[in-house]
Amino acid sequence: MVKFLINRPVAVFLSFLGILFFSFLALQRLPVSLLPNIEVPAIIVKVNYPNNPPSIIENNILKPIRISLNTLNNLKSVESIANSETGILKLQFEFGTRMDLAYIEINEKIDRLQENLPRDMDRPQVVRINTSDIPIARIQVIPKEGSDYNQTSELTDRVLKKRIEQIAGVSIVDVNGFEGQYIGITPDLEKIRALKISEQQIDQVLKGANTDLGRLSVKDGQYRYFVRIANRLDNVEEIENLPIINREGDVIKLKDIAEVEFRSEKRQGYHLSNQREGLVVTVHKQAKAKMTELTPLLYKAVEGFKEDYPQTDFELTQDQSLLLNAGINNLKTSLIYGGIFAFAVLFLFMGNVRMPIMMGITLPISLLISFLFFYAFGLSVNIISLSGLALGLGMLIDNSIIVIDNITRKRKDGLDIVQACIQGVNEVMTPLISSVLTTLAVFVPLVFLNGLSGALFYDQALSVAIILGTSLMVAFVLLPLLYRKFFENLKRPIKEDSLVFKGILKLYKSIFRVVWRFKTISLILLIALIPLAYFIIVSAHKEGLPAIEKTETLLTIQWNEPLDAEENKRRVLNLLEKTAPTAPSESDIGLKQFLLAEQSNSIESAEVYFKSESTEAKLDLEKRLTAFLEGSYQNASFQVQDAPNAFDQIFSSEQKFFIAKWKKLSGSEGLDETMLANLEKDVAEIVSAKPRHGNGFQYGESMEAIIDNKALSFYGISENAMKDALSKALDGYMVTEIRRFGEVTPIWIQRGTEDFRNKLKGISVLGRSNQMYPLSSFVKFEYIKDIKAVTADRIGMYQSLEWENLDEASIQKLQEQLPAKAAQYGLSVDFDGAYFQGRENLQQLIFILMISVLLLYFILAAQFESLVQPLIVILTLPLGIAGALLVLMAAGGTLNVMSAIGIIVMLGIMVNDAILKIDTINRLREEFSLGDTASTERQVLQNAIAKTGEIRLKPILMTSITTILALLPVVFSSGIGADLQRPLVYTVIGGLTIGTFTALFFVPLSYWVISKKKD
Are 210 and 738 in contact (CB under 8 A)? Predict the structure, then answer.
């Protein structure tokens, strides 16, 4: 192939030019996003049923929905939580389930259930979860002093929302903090009694005046006309002037006996931006949109809003594109520094300017062509695929250096330039293809990991395969052609080795002689590093992502008191004024109005986001928050943590580490506080670690209305009439709605704002012989302790004790002893939590890594035609890991996703060097055996090993030094991108440092020992 192509330079150059043109077009069309567009196998059903306790929401709504949805295909788990007024049900499916079909099926089942659900509640909302559902930015909309909040709400909902939705690339715009309006009618009870008007009359007049006759038409000769009733209510003035006739026939206007006015809806939640009440708009991008192009458009839109609506302040916050830009900038930095250092190292080792220029041409060409394959395979440019490209860059430099060095060595042996290019490439083609396959053997099996991890590894494995495949194509086709064009007209001989390399070669020979003299000791010292790798992995601190220098804090508060949203807001404002009066903050208080909100929240909860200037200021703020809440609100439970970025939102799980779920074998009532105390006592006898109470074991004060049924029967009052009167007395009721151009304004009849006991005094209920009796005579109220939330899974209701952390022995004890304890109380206990998922993932990962090693062995055995020689390459892996972890621990790093990626990069380069070295020893051994019949087999082997060391020294050192120097600037950089990449850099530097010594000394020593035993 090389022989055919090297003699057709015009065809090859034009072909590459065409490929580059299409690659550039593909790059323009590639979607750019923070994360791959992964379909998360989860769907959420949200329920809103105002003025109802958790028990009603669980028994009347969530339980029927759960039972109906239990029959869904591939359903993995069901979890629901019912709070006051709201409920949420989360369905988890097996990964790979068609979520579009599941979404349709769930909606169909809920539609069939509607007849059995309460008539006065809105239809449950069904929400799909996707990685693209993470908002890319939040826009704060804050009315200035003197502006009307209702008008700002209408502006946001009707104007701003639509303007943002029209921006190219925006999919969903979500709003929180909206305040609606209604028309409130408060009858004067003394006046309507004096005028002998009943409240039912007001109700009937309002409904009659607002009746729509629907499709009414009349025929006039040959014409047909549709009739519109002109007396539909249209505004407050028309309502005030509605006539009401009393028993004496007097006509009284509604405004004479009732107060009629626009009022703000009862708020169940608030949004604050820097202690100012306002609205927040979250913007979500389309899956195929480019985040890097969309974000500037949002900033431009916000500037436009500031000019168009001067009565309102606007600010764009929590911009997620910063994380993506950090990844893109890191790749650019790696490319620039990689190119500069590759140029410098090649010049330093070879003393020739033309070779580094060839590298400078092939590196960006390989990268650009890889984007064409990205487009073909449907990949997007995101943090994961960019890390795959960064992984491939190290091996891309490696392949180019090996090909250039081998062609140069052939020229040195006396071949003409064309033959040198052909033989130089053909000689390393098999080992380079083998090294790429061995790298993919590590990556590809990781695609089969369960869940999101496997889906994310798919993008990374595919991007690595693309960049490596592209680099091989460029190294085998374009590079030899460039070499020929650069050097064919050169009259003077090529300067093969610089003075620097000659000095290094001399030093290497001296060290190799010493190592070779003490073969056994040297080999034992190197092998001693293998168990060291195991001990470091076991003892290393492990985490998901590296510790990024975060300056953002998230405070989650549960007040554990029956507060309304207004009091909740007052407390949060007090907290902000006392602890962080100047720090930028955002607060979501009470119930969130976001359509895509996944978490269950309640009116007495709040989330506050802070942005500090530095890490020190952040830590100081967190201490002040903790001290203030512990000192001022002892009943409150709260959590101070780093504000989650997009990665955290995808990978974090609300599920605790280990959960014991208690269920009653009979009855539907929850366990009381006495039973909870008994269970905690039993748990304390088994393990010392104290559990926290799950949502089902949290109790709060509530009020219970006790109706005197005997008195109702005696006075001939039906229980339904009593409950209806009580409901209307306490909360009022909606009579009708004014509909105008898509705008809906409810009309409510309400009581005053006085204490609820005073409200009851003026309310009567109709009894026997149309006699009216005071409502307060039949009902009394008591304060009781009740469960704040009802939790359930697919089997039924449960209450849980949860542990954040627990050792293996304690988990074993709990699993063995708790079922017997539960049986004593007539309970059953199930175990759940992230521990079980983590254990399953670890077992799967170990199995997949074993498959990777087997694949590696099969590929190498096929290349070397030996069952023993591949073991040398496999034994180099733990040596490299040991070196990587030693440097990582010395630098204070941890074992995380990025350091694991760094280890894989480093192993790819190390394996490459080891494969080439063994392949060269095999080839030279064969050549020396044919050319030198006088020497013994051992002498031939020794000569082949010595010669291979000299031949391979230059590419091994150049590859390692170039890769290390290209990554070194990241160590001294700052920012989120550098924080993410730093563990990767430490592992690559450590692994390649040890790996260089391994390739130089361990491989030849192992080869000698294995060949000796074979002989």
Answer: yes
* Strands 181-187, 743-749: pairing kind: parallel
CA atoms within 13 A on the CB side of 499: 0
DSSP secondary structure letter of residue 690? P
What is the distance between the alpha carbons of residues 603 and 447, in angstroms, rounded to a whole number?
42
Taking the C-alpha atoms of residue 42 and residue 77, their distance in angstroms, rounded to an integer, is 10
- Which DSSP helix (H) or strand (E) runs through 959? helix 937-971
**Buried (b) or exposed (e) across 766-776, using 16+ Cβ within 10 A?**
bbeeeeebebb
Distance CA(915)–CA(860), nearest Å, equals: 8
Name the nearest CA neighbour of 917 among 1014, 1013, 991, 1000: 1000
> Rounded distance, CA 712 to CA 768, Å?
10
Q: Tokens 């079980």 identify what position? A: 836
Identify the residue whose tokens are 């826009």.
139
Contact 658, 686 (CB under 8 A): no
Residue 501 corresponds to which amino acid? Answer: F
Distance (Å, whole) CA 74 – CA 72: 7
Distance of CA 308 to the CA centre of its chain: 35
Sign of the alpha-carbon dihedral angle for 279, 280, 285, 286: negative
Contact status, residue 33 vs residue 171, Cβ threshold 8 Å: no
Q: Give percent helix, percent strand, percent coil of the chain, each to the nearest 5.
A: 55, 20, 25
Is the Cα dihedral 633, 634, 635, 639 positive or negative? positive
Q: Vertex 455, ends 450 and 460: CA angle to 5°?
A: 125
Global pTM? 0.71
Higher pLDDT, residue 737 or 307: 307
Here the contacts of 616-623 (C-beta below 8 Å, separation 24 or greater) are 617/551, 617/583, 618/550, 618/551, 618/552, 618/553, 621/553, 621/579, 621/580, 621/583, 622/553
Contact assessment for residue 362 and residue 478, using Cβ atoms and an 8 Å cutoff: yes
Q: 3-class SS at 466?
A: helix
For residue 167, what is the DSSP state? S
Query: Are the CB atoms for 797 and 58 separated by under 8 Å?
Result: yes
Q: Quick one: DSSP state of residue 90?
A: E
Sheet strand arrangement including 733-740: 258-264, 181-187, 743-749, 733-740
Tell me the Ramachandran region of residue 756: left when phi exceeds 0, alpha when psi lies from -120 to 50, beta otherwise.
alpha
Q: Say how many C-beta atoms besides its own lie within 10 A of residue 689's C-beta.
A: 15
pLDDT surpasses 80 at 191: yes
Strand partners, 139: 281, 316
Distance CA 939, CA 46 (A): 78
The residue to which tokens 């890097």 are assigned: 292
Q: What is the pLDDT of residues 829-875, one digit of tens each?
A: 888 887 887 777 777 777 877 887 888 888 888 888 888 888 888 88
Task: Determine the Cα–Cα distance for residues 644 and 980; give it in Å rounded to an integer.
Answer: 15
Please name which of 617, 476, 416, 584 lies closest in space to residue 6, comparing C-alpha atoms.
476
Number of helices (H), then strands (E), belonging to the chain: the values are 35, 31
Task: Give me the residues paired with residue 706 across strands.
Answer: 780
Contact predicate 783/637, CB 8 Å: no
Give the 3-state secondary structure of residue 782. strand
Q: Which amino acid is at 756?
A: F
What is the DSSP pairing of strand 39-48 with strand 605-611? Answer: unpaired
Q: pLDDT (tens digit, 9 = 90+) per residue, 434-478?
A: 878 887 777 777 777 666 667 767 777 788 888 888 888 888 888
Residue-wise pLDDT tens digits, 655-665: 678 888 888 87
For 785-821, write each residue's pLDDT tens digit: 777 888 888 888 888 888 888 888 888 888 888 888 8
3-state secondary structure of 363: helix
Q: Do the strands 125-130 and 790-793 form a parallel or antiparallel pair, or are they unpaired?
A: unpaired
Q: Is residue 283 exposed (0-12), middle (13-18) or buried (19+ Cβ within 10 Å)?
A: buried
